[in-house]
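Narrative of activities, Objective 1.

The group set out to show that a structural description can be obtained from nothing but a protein's sequence at a throughput compatible with the screening campaign. Below is one input-output pair from the validation batch, recorded exactly as produced.
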Amino acid sequence: MFNVFRPLNVFYSWYRNALRNPKSRWWILGATVLWLINPLNAIPIVGEIDDAIVLGIVVTEVSQIVLENIKNKKNIEENSIV
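Output recorded for this entry:
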């Protein structure tokens, strides 16, 4: 039986990994911004819901990346002081 959420899980996993890769991060963020400002919707019936989902995913992932970077810098500073 076909799982409806399987393609979404695959896309989310790919998107998350691409954002976490420093080499592709800015390309993915640029493509996301283009997606959000594009007047055409991927699924016209859904309208702005797909934009809200993409925006939610990118905000969540970018905030996690920023928090991890802050935590890593804090750990490096604590280790270098000792």
